[in-house]
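Supplementary notes for students who missed Thursday's class. We covered one full example, reproduced here. Read the sequence, then the structure, then the short commentary at the end.
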Amino acid sequence: MRSIVLGHLDDHIAFHGEVAGVRSARKHLSWFCARLPGGASFRSAMLAHDTVADQRREVEGYFDALAAAGAIIDNEASTAHERDAAAGAAASRRSSV
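Structure (token representation):
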């Protein structure tokens, strides 16, 4: 899931540019992690970041913490959530074009 979230961040920045992309990526990245342990804290932390580098570090740290805590992410649930998040991101891109 880490690679999917980071890939989405990269794609989001490439599409929107860094300034606008960083702001709107906050909600998109939060959607991916909303149902995971610590998702609310992750969302709060993402709101404080104003650069892609900071957002990438936050994502890496979040998934490192999940791994260290032994959190098991259900692939089936994650996949469904990823589809929902990707659909929301695609709809957002279509509405901004």
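Commentary. The chain has a mean pLDDT of 81. Helices lie at 2-16, 18-33, 39-46, 52-68, 75-96. If anything here is unclear, bring it to office hours.
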